Structure prediction request, 429 residues.
Amino acid sequence: MESSVFLKVENTQVGPLTIHELQQMIKQRRIKPSDLIWDNQDELWLPINESDLIKELLLQAPASPRHVMAIGGGKGGVGKTSLTLAIGIALAGLGRRVILVDADFGGSNLHTYLGIDNPEYSFFDYYTMNKTNLAEIVLPTGVENLSFISGASGTLGLANPKYSQKIKLIRELGTLNADYVLLDLGAGSSYNVIDFFLAAGDGAVVSSPDPASIQETFYFIKKALMRKMYRTFRNHPGISKYFSEEERVWNHPDFVSVKELYKNVEKLDKDAAGIFRGVMQRFQPKLILNMVMNSGEANEGVALKTAVGELLSVEMDFWGIIPFDNKVREAAMQKKPFLIYKPNGKASRQVSKMASGKILEYSRLQSYLDRRKLKRLLHRLEVPENEIENEPIICSVNCGYWDDCEYQNGGYPCAIRNLETELVKKTTK
Prediction:
């Protein structure tokens, strides 16, 4: 029988944990050297970095965990494909192995942005069993560290896959030899798009500042949350019928608040309400506002984040804005990625900053941001919460991220703690 492990993470006891669960915590960087682990032999709490078990698991942990991220949007014409390509190139330029996946099965065009007219292989070859695994249809792009999988336009079966096929495909994508797998989803909010967005684990939505795009992005997030809840409770005794009926309400334009829905679920089943909160806590789509022309348009991103928080109780991670840049259109006309066509352009610089400052640094802040997100979620749903310690972290050269941090300010409280607040202040002035 597998032994259980107990931890003290930020003075809160966690456990019993299986070895697999402990491995996941290590992989997600949810424990740090100051945390403690219970030593069964000596019957005392040891610092994590003194544990032989932790050292062994660290040696077993992969040096570069794979990340599968889906990039979608409720409206076409927002620059989603060119932006996905640019993010991929930026990550590749930072030394990460990246595979771009054209997941717009009804109208694939990623290869065109790469200047490739007729890809040698595509999902069609995989779907028709001409190639037996995804690794065989991965194609080079000419950019170091960057490969891609072409879509399969016109293949009806692949354009409308079953739910089980979508999950299977996402799992297989996670086995590819890459640090990051980026899915360029089709436009719109169909269940095919939504299911891939949710199955990927990480998802970013791209919007432009115009009202129609903002509205469609809000609807995309709302529908994604609804779909996630529906899939979670579809077989839950006493709740499944309620959610089947509620699905029509969620899709109705006059739908207002997730808080009321939560209260209804709580009345029916307290345990289901706990599952509900867990789903809400884990659902955190990222937002990229593209083609922004001025500060007024930039504020639309903050407004959308606020609306999603208040009406859907969803904590969005606003990754920032990409300014409007004529060079992006010029690059598209020449079938070149804009990050290569004009690497010093306004849009290119912002994408590079986003790749290094948001995507690569994301996991380092995840544990702290998750705790903050949980507190806000409980507040929005009006659920009592236990007091969570919030002692200030002092910036120091002893910090493991000192060399890479752009917010160095030794001796003062860590600036990362106030990062989100400062972002809102700066973008709403």
The two ends are 59 Å apart (CA to CA). Residues 391-429 form one domain. The chain has 18 helices and twelve strands.
